[in-house]
Design brief:
Blueprint (H helix, E strand, L loop, with lengths): L17 E4 L5 H13 L18 H9 L3 E5 L5 E10 L2 E9 L8 H12 L5 E7 L3 H9 L3 E5 L3 E7 L1
Parallel strand pairs: 4-5
Antiparallel strand pairs: 1-2, 2-3, 3-4, 5-7, 6-7
Helix pairs in contact: 1-2
Length: 163
């Protein structure tokens, strides 16, 4: 998918980025980026390195690619900058996770990916996701994108955004 023209707001001005389905051949690189991204959460509240199930597993990412759930963000040279795992069922899309290579944090790529995700699925009426309670970076990120907290438990904050 190509990018929208500049001027639509932060996250929309990356004319040379593409967000697309990833293949099994992308699994190794995406696993490495996932590992780096989630292990960096120690900087924003995590007591130790770690992440969601399968975050550092190549077989997990291969399986997600085979099931058409794995996506990648690439630059104009084809370099993978980040990824996402998405689950679409009916009118609901669950953002299982998104991750950006930490060397590209704070460049607007996460905003770009979330906006692309919302545009890629015009049939979706509700977007859902969850993130750890302790993660100050992701909680601020999702609320800044218009996601509303719908539930909270001891470990996670659950968000939703209706179209």
């Amino acid at each position: 998918m190509s990018i929208s023209p500049a001027g639509k707001g932060q996250g929309d001005c990356f004319m040379n980025l593409q967000f697309m389905k990833a293949g099994t051949s992308d699994a190794l690189v995406l696993t490495g980026i996932s590992r780096l991204a989630f292990n960096s959460d120690t900087e924003v509240g995590s007591a130790c390195p770690g992440g969601p199930p399968g975050y550092q597993s190549v077989p997990f990412h291969v399986r997600m690619a085979r099931m058409n759930h794995l996506f990648k963000l690439v630059d104009e040279n084809g370099v993978i900058l980040g990824g996402a795992i998405l689950f679409c069922q009916g009118g609901t899309l669950n953002v299982g996770r998104i991750f950006i290579d930490p060397q590209h944090f704070r460049k607007g790529y996460g905003i770009f990916m979330m906006r692309k995700i919302e545009r890629m699925f015009p049939e979706v009426k509700v977007f859902t996701l969850d993130t750890p309670v302790w993660n100050t970076r992701t909680n601020a990120f999702y609320t800044g994108l218009g996601y509303s907290e719908v539930k909270r438990d001891r470990d996670f904050v659950y968000y939703s955004k209706k179209r």
